[in-house]
Amino acid sequence: MNEQEMNKVPAPGFVPVVNPMSAAIPPRRQTERYKRVLSAAESEKGLAATVFSVAFGILFTETVFLGAMGISVTVLTAILCSFMLVYFHEKGERLSFKGVLLTVPIMLIAAGFGLHYNPAVQMMTVPALLGLAAVQAILLSGGRLNTLLSFDTLAKAANHLVARPLSFLDMPFRSLRAVRKIKSPKTAAVLKAAAGLALALPFGAILLLLFARADSVFESGLNYITQTLHISFGKLITDLLLGSTGAIVLGAYLIAAKVEGKEPAKDKAASRFIDTTVGTAFLSVINLILLLFVAVQFQYLFAGSAGRMVSGLSYAEYARKGFFELSWASGLCFAAAVFILCFCKKGQNGLPIAVRVLVTLMCTCNGVILASAVLRMGLYVQAYGLSVKRLLTLWFMAVIGVCLIWLVLQCISEQFNALRFIGATAIVFVCVLSLVNVDRLIAHYNIERYIKSPAAVQLDASYLSDLSYSALPEVAQLYTSLKDDSQPLRNELNGVMEEMRSSYEGRHRIYGFTAEDAEISGFLASVSA
Question: What is the pLDDT of residues 34-47, one digit of tens each?
């Protein structure tokens, strides 16, 4: 053995170091995580999740996505919440109390869709309903959330509802193997009946089309039924395609969420990164600006309360001047206060007293800004009436005003969790917004304002046509009460009611049904008579 060969011999006790990056990665199907999810997919509950997802996906596409947001939203929300409560429940284990409690606001928001047609607020209620349903799904499946409004919640929602289902899109298909393992005769009978119904649908559709072509009387009756129920055989194909696609994602989530372990709560202290000196300096400068502005605002408030205007401005000019800027400023100050309280580093005794005092001062000044903004908008509404945008803006300012109180209370006592109350406040206000008939409320206010002072107030009939048919009872009552000398306004209101009639008759009679439909139909019949 030469010297080079001796150098190649390892010394006694030598253990070679293996680079972990070069280690072989096991195939996906051999990982423990995949095996756990596969086991859940091939169980009876996994099969139930797949069957439910397919049925729910098709129903959602037909009734809501391609149908109308009415009683369909209320019914489907109740079905989804009921299934999740049953599906995630295990013997000997308790469901998340927060997840169960969220059923109340979810159903209240969904109930608003079944009470009245409220398209003006759907930009608020629909995202809120979807967001709360997503949070409920995370909590019921074992996920843990520190607060409803946080970056941690957004990250977990993306992981639970997007990344996880996309990783197990094959599980709904593999769950079909569970049919051979079912031991319960009742369950097997139900699944077989469901399979028979699924096979009968396309076969029955073909027979109906053939019979309609063969017999004109049968075709006439079939057309009457399909037109009354707004059923289209071509649309059913779209329902199957889109609904099945969504069902794959929903089924993958339900199956994977059933076995994924509970996640530990994130350490709140580790997320605080703003230095106390930086926060104090920032708040000092902002508060100085706010105090200067508030000093000026007291002059405007006192002038407004005394009926005096500044520089001879009209009501519209006074109200419009700076209102939206004040709204933005109030929102920015509120966001800055929340940011500082959440991410400023704490000392041994908690958040420094200087930071708490400065945040309290910021919230107080923000309250004055809100008062000034609400006063300006109040003057505008008093002079020119109410609109959807004005009402929603006042609603938003009310939310900010209540939330400012929670921030001040947290500054006084750090044991008070302001974010929890802010989330609860937002939920309560959205529930109220969903349950209130906004369009009818706006029409009622503007019409009553006109009736009290017909000579001084001009009714904008063209704006009433922008409201939904939920406002029709108010318009119809004004129309019938007008005298013959108000013929131009009667003509305008008649055109408004015709537009509302067209919108009402264009809605799906079943999917878009609301509790006010009977009243709407009665007013339409009385006006026509």
Answer: 788 888 888 888 88
Is pLDDT of 77 > 90? yes
User: In this structure, how many other beta carbons lie within 10 angstroms of the beta carbon of residue 502?
Assistant: 10
- Secondary structure of the chain: what % helix, strand, coil (to 5)? 75, 0, 25
Region label for 196, one of left (φ > 0), alpha (ψ between -120 and 50) or beta (otherwise)? alpha
pTM given for the model: 0.82
Q: Which domain holds residue 406?
A: 270-435
Considering only CA atoms, which of 357, 211, 369 is closest in space to residue 297? 369
- Domains identified in the chain, total number: 3
455-500 tens-digit pLDDT: 777 888 888 888 899 998 888 888 888 776 677 888 888 888 888 8
Q: Is the pLDDT of residue 163 over 60?
A: yes
CA distance 33 to 216: 59
Distance CA 234, CA 178 (A): 33
Do 338 and 407 contact (CB within 8 A), yes or no? yes
Which of 212-221, 235-244, 402-411 shows the highest mean pLDDT? 402-411
Q: Which of 259, 279, 304 is the last residue of a domain?
A: 259
Q: How far apart are CA 166 and CA 249, in angstroms?
A: 7
Band the pLDDT of 6: cuts 50, 70, 90. low
Residue 287 and residue 358 in contact, taking contact as beta carbons nearer than 8 Å? yes
Of 381, 416, 435, which one is at a domain's C-terminal end? 435
Q: Quick one: angle between helices 517-528 and 487-505, nearest 10?
A: 130
For residues 386-400, average pLDDT: 89
158: nearest Cα among 45, 47, 253, 50:
253
Write the CA distances from 155 to 260, 350, 502, integer angstroms.
16, 27, 44
- Give yes or no for a contact between 193 and 282, defined as CB atoms under 8 angstroms apart: no
Kindly tell me the sign of the dihedral angle through the C-alpha atoms of 457, 461, 464, 466: negative
